[in-house]
Amino acid sequence: MPALALLLAGCSGVWVPEKIENRVGELTTRAVLEQMPLHKDPAWQTYLEKLGGKIAAVSERPAYHYRYYIVESSTVNAFAVPDGSVFVTTGLLKYAGQDPAALAGVLAHEIGHIARRHGAETLQAKLGYGLITFIVFGFENSAAKQAGAMSTQIMELGYGREMELEADLCSARYLVRLGYPPDASLKFLRILLPLQKGGEDLALAKYLRSHPQTGERISYVESYLAGSLKPPGNMPK
Per-domain residue ranges for the chain? Predict the structure, then answer.
């Protein structure tokens, strides 16, 4: 065990095996579905799956097993789980559901988290040696439960600032690849901006707390689209 720990500690980037990423994600998805009922609307479900499928196909992980869920909640939120699950609340559809580009931007942001393995990277950073125990001794021990519980918390609270901004860049890139206008990924953020300033809807509070300031996110993507901002070094062109 110590030798493995030292070996993995010396690795750069995400060293969590995809098998572990999937298992932790499965535990997280199961927990979310136990807490939040599915929104049973076949038309919306089909639309979300088709739109998500198109976006995922132009991401860095096009062959990954993505799944899309609409859940009943007045809270405005969308989040991605490491096993490829993307959750969108009915509260978010209230704001993004009427504009195809706005919803596409939200989905592309969440797919970006999965494609860039932000969930695995965050778990790796937070669990450290406990995650190594999980890898060595299997899936059904206390480390697995700890990883699943932490993953659920991460999904609800959002990733760190750098990962959220990177997912915003992913959203912009994916939509451009699909032929959307360059600023299409900003549609939802521009819907949020006046609401954030006016404090009009408490249902938005959780989403806003889990992401960088909306104005900062808009400026960041605008700078990238204008060519004045280089993407992070580990991000493919």
Answer: 2-225
